[in-house]
Structure formats: structure tokens, C-alpha cells
Amino acid sequence: xxxxxxxxxxxxxxxxxxxxxxxxxxxxxxxxxxxxxxxxxxxxxxxxxxxxxxxxxxxxxxxxxxxxxxxxxxxxxxxxxxxxxxxxxxxxxxxxxxxxxxxxxxxxxxxxxxxxxxxxxxxxxxxxxxxxxxxxxxxxxxxxxxxxxxxxxxxxxxxxxxxxxxxxxxxxxxxxxxxxxxxxxxxxxxxxxxxxxxxxxxxxxxxxxxxxxxxxxxxxxxxxxxxxxxxxxxxxxxxxxxxxxxxxxxxxxxxxxxxxxxxxxxxxxxxxxxxxxxxxxxxxxxxxxxxxxxxxxxxxxxxxxxxxxxxxxxxxxxxxxxxxxxxxxxxxxxxxxxxxxxxxxxxxxxxxxxxxxxxxxxxxxxxxxxxxxxxxxxxxxxxxxxxxxxxxxxxxxxxxxxxxxxxxxxxxxxxxxxxxxxxxxxxxxxxxx
Length: 433
What we know:
Layout (H helix, E strand, L loop, with lengths): L1 H37 L12 E4 L7 E2 L16 E4 H9 L5 E2 L5 E2 L2 E6 L2 E9 L4 E5 L4 E6 L7 E2 L4 E6 L1 H16 L4 H13 L4 H10 L5 E5 L4 E4 L17 H8 L10 E2 L4 E6 L3 E8 L12 E6 L6 E13 L2 E11 L10 E6 L3 E8 L4 E2 L4 E7 L2 E13 L2 E6 L7 E2 L9 H4 L7
Antiparallel strand pairs: 1-2, 1-3, 4-24, 5-26, 6-21, 7-16, 7-20, 8-15, 9-11, 9-14, 10-13, 11-12, 13-15, 16-19, 17-18, 17-20, 18-19, 21-25, 22-23, 23-24, 24-25
Helix pairs in contact: 3-4
């Protein structure tokens, strides 16, 4: 009886143990299923192109089905639907192809603009009003009546006196004829004519006939009005004069004394002094290389000065192409009145040349980044900016013409320089172009 009794108790205990174990396994299985349902999958678990649900407070919590955020601080906040390709494309897209930023944008405008050209320049003498005082005789300068460079000279003013052996001899021949052969009218008239051809004035000739005394030092008078301008031989240019501040002008200012001295011998026809008239001056404008094709004679120009002088208007009178060191350039000349001597030779100026009007596509100059061989802008696509290559044309008033690469519907960043990410901007993939 005992054995049977013991056997029965052992059987009951075994059944009880099996039931407990079974319940424990079922509980663990249920817990595992519940945890798997609430587990937040990793980014790699979500397939590209499927629907993605994410927690606004915890972007790392994402799921491919609706649900609630498992984080306790969210207190069961529902997950928000978001398309996975939009999310991952922005995260995984290389930074050297796009820039995620919110900046001010603008669209290209198709409009008509005047192509005004900006140019720098300086004031120079009017070469048309530059005259020369030359020696009509070979001889020696006995007396100078001018002392320094830039000295004012008036018409009829005595400039210097010269002793010429040839002129003295011709005067003596005429006096001899008048004294010894007064009846030889033909010879006397020929002697007078020779003196006139040598530059002997009527006043000097009349004085010689009246006094019959030879003039040893013949005076030379200026036929021009202006300022004395002597260019020493070691700085004398072969072409146009250079602006104030150059080596040549500095030499003249540092050496105001004249190189011609009393007692110096000069040859017949040698230029002694230059007289320049500054009642009209020339404004020499240096045209930028990209604007050469836009400049023509007759164009209206507005000239501004560094001081408070009122801007003056003029027109291009002469264009001089220049080619130096393999670089082609252009200078334009504008003549302006200077009756009151308001404009100083060598003063720097800035000019605006009125250009033609063109109707085309324009964007701000700040929106273009010049990389040398190509130009690019930041084009906005799907919320981010992509570097876009463009073809540009003319520029005017801080605007640039777009000949290819953009349309009126394109949206670009106004300030291209703010979005540069070093070499990433330069190394843009061609498929993004």
C-alpha cells in the first residue's frame, strides 16, 4: 500500500512540474512576440521606397508600419508617416553634390537693360593743342626769359634771345648794301627777303633799316598761349603721355628747372620748348578687356572726379587699340572744356559709358561663381542646392546675362559665395549639370 501511495504522489508532482514549465514557456514566448512588435528597427531594416514612420522627438526611432514610440518620455506618441526615399536621399547624398541650407533665392528675369560700361582713366593734355617753339637759326642762346617748367606763356611773349653767326652776316650784308649801294634796289630787296625767310620779323627788319645797326642777339617770341612744357630727352615718350604718378611725370616734378640753359648751342629747327593749352583737356579711359567690343566713337560718357566736382558729360572722340605683352587693350579719348582750369593734369577719373540696350535673361552678379574656365550658380532642387554650370554673356549694373543653363522658372541662390564647400563646389558631377 505504501509503495502505491508513494507512486501516486510522485505522479502528481511530475504533472504539476510539467504544467508550470509549460506556462512559463508560453509567457516567455508571448513576451518575445510583444517586444518584437514594439522594437524600433534600424535604418538599414527599412527598405528604400517603402513607407517609413518615425518619432518627431527621436528621429532614430523609425518603423515600416504604424505604431507608437516605445520611449517612455514620449508617453505613447504616435509615429509620423514619412517616405523613406526622401529621408534617406538627403542623409546619404554626398555633400559635394548638394548643400542643405535655407537661403534667399531669386529667379532669372527676362528684361531690357542698358549696358553701361565702367572705366577708369586720367586727365591728360590735349595733343591737338600742343605746339612747339623751335630755333630758326643755328647759334647760341644768349638770354632766357623763361625759368621753369609749367610756366604760363602768353602769345607774343619773348621767350629767349639767340646769337646766330649766319643771321649776323646776312644783317651786315643788308646794312652794307644800304650804306654803299643804295641804288641796288634788287639786291637790297633780295637781302630783306632772305632775312624774312630766316624768321626775322617785320618789326626787327624795320628797326634794322632805320638804325643800320646789326642786332647781335635776335629775340624769339611765342606764337601760342598756354603753359611751358619741356620733356627732357631721357624721359621723352615715343607715344602718348602717361598719367600723373608715373615715372615720367615724377621726373618732371622732381626736376622743375629747364634743361635748356643760357650759353647752350642749338641747331636750326631744333625744338626748344613745347607750349600746351589746357583750355581743353583730354580724358584718357582704359577700357577693360571684356568691354572692348562694346565701345565705339560717339558714345556718350559721364565723367566723375575724385573731388566734389560736378560730373561732366562728353562723348568718345577717338579710340586707340593697344597690344602689349600679348594682351589686347583699348583706350578711349574724351575731350572736355577746362576754361576755368578746374581739372588738373594727371587727376584720376571714373567714367560711365552709355551702352546699347539688350533684352535678355539677367541674374545678380552675386549669384555667379567664377571658377576661371567655367561659371556656376546654386540651383535649388527638392529643398537643397545643386551646383549648376551656366554660360554667361554681358554684364551691366551688377547684373550678368545668362545665355545658357537657366530659365525664367529656375530658382537660384542670390549669394553664391555663402554656399561654397571648398572643393565640393568645384568637383560637381556632370550628371548634376
